[in-house]
Amino acid sequence: MHLGHSHEGPAAVSADARRPDGSRRALRVGLGGPVGSGKTATVAALCRALRDRLSIAVVTNDIYTREDAAFLLRNAVLPPERIQAVETGACPHTAIRDDISANLEAVEDLEEAVGPLDLILVESGGDNLTATFSKGLVDAQIFVIDVAGGDDIPRKGGPGVTTADLLVVNKTDLAPYVGSDLDRMARDAKEQRAELPVVFQSLRSEAGVAGVAAWVGEKLAAWQA
């Protein structure tokens, strides 16, 4: 299920689109959302879907561990040198919105070490509905929620739900078991987000991450044009 497809270019950013040598840097896409919503699984699925045609790297954020990076490494979604972990030591939104220095260093190190890159995915640690990325860190933002968190989440809003460039409603296969109404979630998301796009996905389905991968592809095409 998809809502409000947008074909506009990446969100305006304050960061320079060029590397010091004058070449265009990678498109940076941030993924945020509550704990357990499926951010890491979505990152893994995106890497599998896009790695044969794009040069990709990933930065993960955890407060005190490198658990998300370890998950990606165990599942061999990318070569180890393309996965960088950041231990934030504080609330996740601090490192993606307030003091982005550690994440900026990580993405720049990846471009230097394994570049040129087409795409860098920056995954936030689990946070609440207010989590957003600094536009100095990423060029576009994906916010991931899941049906098990309650079908009222889109209606509750918050900056993550209402302003992210893409909202992903994940784990739709669980809806019958947790009593979530997908049609209601779609209506509420439309009301909160107007024309901003929404993708409903189950990584257990045949379609899997295809909707999100297509959206990333559109953003990358606009970025490189």
Give the proportion of residues in helices: 25-40%
| First and last CA, distance | 28 Å
Low-confidence stretches: 4-14
Radius of gyration: 16 Å
- Secondary-structure element pattern, one letter each: EEHEHEHHEEHHEHHEH
Number of helices: 9
Biggest β-sheet: strands ordered side by side in the sheet: 1-8-7-6-2-5-3-4
What is the mean pLDDT?
89
Structural class: alpha/beta
The backbone outline, from C-alpha atoms, is globular
Largest sheet: 8 strands, mixed
- Give the strand tally: 8
Strand percent estimate: 15-25%
Q: What does it look like?
A:
- By secondary structure, this protein is an alpha/beta fold.
- The protein contains 9 helices and 8 strands.
- The protein has an 8-stranded mixed sheet with strand order 1-8-7-6-2-5-3-4, with helices on both faces.
- The chain starts with a strand and ends with a helix.
- About 5% of the residues have low confidence.
